[in-house]
Design a protein that fits this description.
CATH superfamily of the largest domain: L,D-transpeptidase catalytic domain-like
Helix content: 10-25%
Structural class: alpha+beta
CATH topology of the largest domain: L,D-transpeptidase catalytic domain-like
Number of strands: 13
Strand order of the largest sheet: 3-6-5-4-13-8-9-10-12
Distance between the termini: 93 Å
Radius of gyration: 34 Å
Largest sheet: 9 strands, mixed
CATH architecture of the largest domain: Beta Barrel
Length: about 270
């Protein structure tokens, strides 16, 4: 076998001595292994030498691969906050027992994702502690501190029954009694049996909670209330009231009750 110093490159130039002999097979084997590791997406770490170089005489050279350039004054977008009442859908819409009544679970898979309870960046510009109903979106917002809002899907009034304006929530009730107005009884005579009021319960149209809307001290007759008819959320199905999933209206009720002042409401 020829000695390393006797080997020549194709041009005829003698191959320089390197102090070690690396066979062609060894080189190809090593390259092949690295290629396989890269293609496999494996999470194994290869043992590369440190990227911290020796400092030159000046002593100011930063480590290789470290970007020390200033990012300027751009502020990152703040993350959405964590709320223990805003969890996964299966938890939020599970069956619950409330005042001795068993509220059925909501098959949330049948409710469009945009109509399920969630925290969003507040788009309303209203002060914290305000309820905002956007009729065209079929969304109700509870405005919070820090530029966020809890958003719920709602059902709204049929064409010709809508109400809009600025008012306030005068008071709230749990499992309220529903009394159909005379105009509704005229349209649906079968409701005359409830002319004295239908007691609160699972079949009551006002659901688990009701928020009573007053304007200038007068009852508007409109409510933000729960409904056993979860499938109407996102539609125009009511006689002007804003209806919510029972689990959602309980969540809103707890927030309204915690407010130190009467809660303003904007419906537009």
């Amino acid at each position: 076998m020829r000695k390393p110093q006797d080997q020549k490159l194709p041009s005829g130039v003698p191959m320089p001595e390197t102090g070690c002999i690396v066979s062609r097979r060894t080189v190809l084997s090593g390259l092949g292994a690295m290629t396989l590791l890269g293609a496999s997406g494996c999470s194994q770490a290869l043992d590369f030498p440190s990227l911290e170089p020796m400092e030159p005489s000046g002593g100011d050279m930063p480590p290789v691969g470290v970007d020390r350039m200033s990012t300027g004054s751009i502020r990152p977008v703040p993350p959405i906050s964590v709320d223990s009442n805003i969890t996964d859908n299966s938890t939020m819409y599970a069956s619950i027992v409330d005042n001795g009544l068993v509220i059925p679970a909501v098959p949330f898979q049948k409710v469009k994702p945009e109509f399920r309870r969630q925290i969003v960046i507040d788009p309303t510009g209203e002060p914290p502690g305000t309820i905002v109903v956007r009729l065209n979106e079929r969304h109700l917002y509870w405005v919070q501190e820090g530029g966020e809002a809890v958003r719920y899907g709602v059902g709204i009034g049929k064409a010709g029954f809508e109400w809009s304006g600025r008012a306030e929530i005068q008071y709230t009730k749990q499992w309220p009694t529903w009394t159909p107005p005379k105009e509704m009884i005229a349209r649906k005579p079968e409701l005359v049996k409830w002319s004295g009021g239908q007691p609160g319960g699972l079949d009551n149209p006002l659901g688990a909670r009701a928020h009573y809307i007053f304007k200038d001290g007068h009852d508007t007759g409109y409510r933000v209330h729960g409904s056993p008819e979860w499938w109407t959320i996102g539609t125009q199905a009511s006689s002007g009231c804003v209806r919510m999933i029972n689990q959602d209206v309980i969540d809103l009720y707890n927030r309204v009750k915690a407010s130190p002042t009467k809660v303003p409401i904007v419906v537009a």
